[in-house]
Amino acid sequence: MTILNKNLSALQKVSPQLYTRIKDLKISENIKILKAGNDSYTLKVTTQSGEKLIHSIYNPEKEAETFIASFQLKKNFIPLVLGLGFGYHLFEIFKQINKFSAIFVFELREDIFKAALTRQNFVPILSNPKVKIFVTSNQKIIMNYLYKLTFQKKIRGKMKLIVHQPSLSIYKQDASEFIDIIEKIQIKPKMQQVMKTNFLANITQTIESPGINTFFSAFKNKPVFLISAGPSLSRDIESLKKIKNRGILICVSTAFSLLIKNKIIPDFVAIGDPKAIMLTHFTDLLENSVPLIFLPTASKEVISQYKGPKIVALQTGYSLSDFVAERVDKGRVDVGESVSTLILDVAIKTGANPIVFVGQDLSFYNGYSHAKGIEKRLKITHKPRTIKSITGAEIPASSSFYWFLHWIEKKIAQFPRIKFINVSQFGARIKGTLPMELETVIKEYCTEELKSKVL
Q1: Cis peptide before 354, with omega less than 30 degrees from 0?
Q2: Domain holding 146: CATH number?
Q3: pLDDT for position 406
Q4: Same domain? 359 vs 406
Q5: With contact defined as beta carbons under 8 Å apart, do 371 and 255 qualify?
Q6: For residue 216, which of 32, 160, 169, 431 sits 20 to 30 Å off, Cα-Cα?
């Protein structure tokens, strides 16, 4: 039996659909299989920009060894490999398989995968349940899988992206969006260090501050408004003033100053970002009395200087927060990579109903990133991806927005008894939400004053 037939036999057992697509596929004429200097094989692919060599012409194995060593893969990392080629770098990772709970491989060209099966013995890899290989040119399929994958607590925060650059050079489609979204969910050593530094610096505040569980079920069946800093916030500022004491306002830190300037006092402001630059959102607001919901990993500069009441929320899936939670009951929250997703989980745990999204556009309206008056407001000049708007039109967004949208929709689906309302009239369509005008929401749900709201 040839190497190809052995590989196809193994592939058929683990992925019948991929086997069906690959078995009779003809290898493109622009792919040439060459002998390397050490009698291994390499690939030369002709593209519109010229010929591309995918592996070393001298010693592909040694090249792969050096390449993988540069990533310093540690125990419990989950490698995500983009670009397979003839798999030398994958074989190098596979040597360390006992260190990893899983390995994910993504190849965007079926003909390259077929060529690899004709020369390399992939049977041990294909037969190992820890290794998942995806071969498709449809990046949307891959990204949708990744979004689902990252909701698994055992995987989230452990991913390590390994991009095989020579493979990227032969893909017909741009893989930048794919890389962008993986980079947002993989392990970030520098940011992890910043988070750890913040956690240690904030430990006294974490222990001494009341926990977010103080407010669990505190606003049962009360309207809670989650205020983000999207472009539509500008339109709804005046309407927000009418809520007064008839609803709970929770805003993200980027929207805080705009609300205060417009004499809207939120009931809570929330911060999750670990970067020191977050202090700029609190300029002239450090003496404010609005309770600050914070993650222990949030900017230590803000946590140490903010004089108002503080409420700590321990994020799930973070080892240091797990350590504290085992000793002190402060309440846990799902974060989802954004303060806007953080406050959604907080609102759910307070028992709020309805939960109203304000300024949650998840898109660039008229080319802008944030509401008018927000310091971070940028004019977007590059061509981003698009997503469906509330009206059904395609609107510009970023990969980050796409990720947040999926997180929010999945969270909403878990709570069918809660009414979720989206008052953005030109932002992203959020599955599971009811589109309404903010004025209508206020008239329908803000019908009585709340006796006691906060600390």
Answers
A1: yes
A2: 3.40.50
A3: 82
A4: yes
A5: yes
A6: 431
Among residues 187, 212, 230, which one ends one of the domains? 187
Judgement on whether residues 58 and 175 belong to the same structural domain of the protein: yes
CA atoms within 13 A on the CB side of 370: 16
Q: How far apart are CA 343 and CA 349, in angstroms?
A: 10
Q: What is the pLDDT of residue 55?
A: 94
Host domain of residue 338 = 192-445
- pLDDT at residue 378 in the model: 44
Supply φ then ψ for residue 294, to 5 degrees: -135, 150
Number of structural domains in the chain: 2
| Predicted local confidence at residue 247, as pLDDT | 95
Q: Quote the pTM value.
A: 0.70
Report which of 84, 111, 118, 120 is spatially closest to residue 28, judged by C-alpha positions. 111
Q: Is residue 453 part of a domain?
A: no
Instruction: Specify the pLDDT at position 366.
Output: 57
Burial (Cβ within 10 Å: 0-12, 13-18, ≥19) of residue 141: exposed
Note whether residue 452 is domain-resident. Answer: no
Whether residue 291 contacts residue 454, with contact meaning beta carbons closer than 8 Å, is answered with yes
Closest CA to 160 of 225, 280, 93, 71: 71
CA gap 327, 31 in Å, rounded: 59
**Average confidence (pLDDT) per 10 residues, the chain, 455 residues:** 93 94 90 93 88 93 92 85 94 90 91 94 95 86 73 69 86 64 59 89 95 94 94 90 94 92 95 91 88 95 95 89 90 86 95 95 63 46 63 75 84 96 88 95 93 60
Q: Find out whether 296 and 324 touch, Cβ atoms under 8 Å.
A: yes
378 and 244 Cβ atoms separated by less than 8 Å: no
DSSP annotation of 210: P
Q: Are 85 and 43 in contact (CB under 8 A)?
A: yes
Distant-in-sequence contacts of 152-157, Cβ < 8 A, 24+ apart: 153/316, 153/317, 154/101, 155/78, 155/101, 155/102, 156/185, 156/317, 157/187, 157/317, 157/318
Question: In this structure, are strands 159-163 and 50-53 parallel, antiparallel, or unpaired?
Answer: unpaired
User: Residue 225's closest CA among 202, 181, 255?
Assistant: 255
Amino acid at 245: N
Report which secondary-structure segment, H or E, holds 252: strand 248-252
